[in-house]
Amino acid sequence: MTDNLREVAPDFEELLLGFAFADVWARTVLPLRERALVRLGALTALGAPVTATRANIDSALHAGLGREEVSEAILQTLPYAGFPHAITALEILRELVEPVPGRTDPRAHRAEPPDAPPKRRPDHRAYPGPDATSSPGASPDAP
Fold it and tell me: What is the pTM assigned to this prediction?
């Protein structure tokens, strides 16, 4: 996403990584899994763009939430967000967890090659992002 926006908004990546990742997502009062659930609820209720919703559903799955937990988090928004927003989020979840013929991990198509250079600017590499396992309650084995 940031690669596509760099040409029209060169500072966007720095603002996103600095504020969302380093300042907000790095807070540790809530465990990582709970923070992922809060983000999913907010994005679904707001009817967030597909790109943001997909990235955060994928992040929640990588944080150790199961398909059923993500689905339930989305369903809990129905009384507040309505069916259209929940349907969109559930469709994205289905796309992310649905097996693709010839691929064993439905998320494998987004994996970076092991030798790929880091996408973040050097000043943000110290913070591992929203899937970090440093928060209380997070499993040390979580991806």
Answer: 0.62
> b/e for 127-143, b at 16 or more Cβ within 10 A?
bebbbbeebeebeeeee
Residue 101, pLDDT score: 66
Report the C-alpha gap between 45 and 63 in whole angstroms: 21
Sign of the C-alpha dihedral, residues 132, 134, 135, 139? positive
Cα(102)–Cα(92) distance, integer angstroms: 20
Q: C-alpha dihedral over 104, 71, 84, 110, to 10 degrees?
A: -30
Whole-number Cα distances in Å, 89 to 44, 76, 96, 108, 121:
6, 12, 11, 20, 30
User: Which DSSP state fits 132?
Assistant: -
Nearest to 75 by CA among 95, 93, 58: 93
DSSP state of 141: T
Tens of pLDDT, residues 21-70: 778 878 889 999 999 999 999 999 999 999 999 999 999 999 999 999 99
